[in-house]
Design brief:
This protein has a single domain, classed as Aspartate Aminotransferase, domain 1 (Alpha-Beta Complex). The chain is globular, with a radius of gyration of 13 Å. The protein is built from 4 helices and 6 strands; from the N terminus they run αββββαββαα. Strands 1-2-3-4-6-5 form a 6-stranded antiparallel sheet. With 114 residues, the chain is an alpha+beta fold.
């Protein structure tokens, strides 16, 4: 499954000033890691954001936002933003900003032993 290179460029530009940003292809898309924690990503042509679970429900009320749900069970704290929710630059920056704020508080996933 391919992901939007245009959206990848927008995200790269938004995160360019930050240290320790890495990209990983996963979940059929592209994920941007900040401080070794998943922060934002792309699934096809939509933005995936990791948000503070405390603002999760309120975020779902915003235009273009829906729960991230791959398995029939929404992942609390993860949302998908479609084009209508991020077409305007200020809206795009809003979602990236929320993800970056939570990233500072989020715990990194434990590394699996190989």
């Amino acid at each position: 499954m391919a992901y939007s290179e245009e959206l990848a460029l927008r995200i790269r530009a938004q995160l360019a000033h930050l240290p320790e940003v890495a990209e990983k292809e996963m979940m059929g898309g592209l994920t941007f890691m900040y401080h070794n924690k998943m922060c934002v990503g792309i699934i096809q042509d939509e933005l995936m954001c990791r948000l503070d679970p405390d603002i999760y429900e309120a975020s779902l009320e915003k235009p273009g936002c829906r729960p991230m749900d791959f398995t029939g069970r929404p992942m609390k704290g993860w949302v998908i933003i479609d084009e209508t929710g991020m077409a305007a630059q200020k809206d795009f920056e809003y979602w990236i900003g929320l993800a970056l704020v939570f990233n500072a508080k989020a715990k990194a996933s434990k590394k699996k032993k190989r």
